[in-house]
UniProtKB/TrEMBL annotation:
TM regions (residue ranges): 6-24, 31-49, 55-74, 86-104, 116-133, 145-165, 171-191
Cellular localisation: Cell membrane
Domain of life: Bacteria
Organism encoding this protein: Leucobacter alluvii
UniProt-listed InterPro entries: AmiSUreI_transpt, AmiSUreI_transpt_sf
Pfam families in alphabetical order: AmiS_UreI
UniProt KW keywords: Cell membrane, Membrane, Transmembrane, Transmembrane helix, Transport
Protein name per its UniProtKB record: AmiS/UreI family transporter
Keyword Oxidoreductase: no
Topology term for the membrane: Multi-pass membrane protein
Source taxonomy: Bacteria, Bacillati, Actinomycetota, Actinomycetes, Micrococcales
Family per record: Belongs to the AmiS/UreI family.
Principal cellular location given in the protein's record: membrane
CDD domains in the cross-refs: UreI_AmiS_like_2 (cd13429)
Length: 216
């Protein structure tokens, strides 16, 4: 994933995290999802079209679609009022693919830090699946906090490091990254548990077209 594209992945995850936490209204987040989702679909298409069959280039671009279609799906649900089950089931597909992309980072690309990042995204998209497809409303605020924190930790920070030439990878940095993302999950779990009974149900509606279980 390019450093510029990764920066905007961080931005949209940050906004969507705030949306799940009832800080940003769903319709106010739709524009960012449309912009980044479109970018993550158009750019990899151009890259693949110009790859001249280079498998490594195609592999690197292919994962971008997983994010692009997720954000476009969020925008679609928000603007049309569609329910979130489709997005939820797509999210478990994304989570499974993210596990594979993480393995590829370790085995083929020698970048264990991004292997850890891909696996953290797998956990995040698994949470989207549980909230949207399985109706686990009590996890909505946990998911919101984890989305927000990963937007910073897996998007903005590594993107800025790549852009400034300070990014390093290897076993030791990967262990640090794993510890950071475990801490992010623990923090999300703690921060997301309090007010969950009421606010969690309302926030879940933002990714399901604005309707909570009580309204369906």
């Amino acid at each position: 994933m390019s450093s510029v594209g990764l920066l905007y992945v961080g931005a949209v995850l940050f906004i969507n995290g705030l949306m799940l936490l009832d800080v940003v209204p769903a319709r106010a987040a739709a524009a960012m999802n449309l912009f980044v989702g479109g970018m993550q679909v158009v750019f990899p298409t151009i890259i693949i079209a110009q790859a001249d069959g280079d498998a490594s280039v195609i592999l690197g671009a292919s994962g971008l679609y997983l994010f692009g279609f997720t954000y476009l799906y969020v925008a679609w649900n928000t603007l049309t009022g569609a329910s979130g089950e489709g997005l939820g089931w797509f999210s478990i597909f994304v989570a499974a693919c993210a596990v594979v992309y993480g393995i590829v980072q370790f085995t083929h690309l020698a970048d264990p830090v991004f292997g850890v990042i891909w696996w953290s995204w797998a956990v995040l998209w698994l949470l989207f699946f549980l909230v949207l497809a399985r109706g686990r409303d009590r996890l909505t605020r946990v998911t919101g906090w984890f989305t927000l924190l990963l937007g910073i930790g897996t998007g903005a920070v590594p993107a800025l490091m790549l852009l400034t030439g300070t990014y390093v990878t290897g076993a030791a940095p990967a262990l640090v990254a794993a510890a950071v993302f475990a801490a992010c999950f623990a923090a999300a779990w703690v921060l997301g548990r309090p007010r969950q009974q009421r606010s969690g149900r309302v926030a879940a509606g933002t990714m399901t077209g604005g309707r909570t279980d009580a309204e369906l």
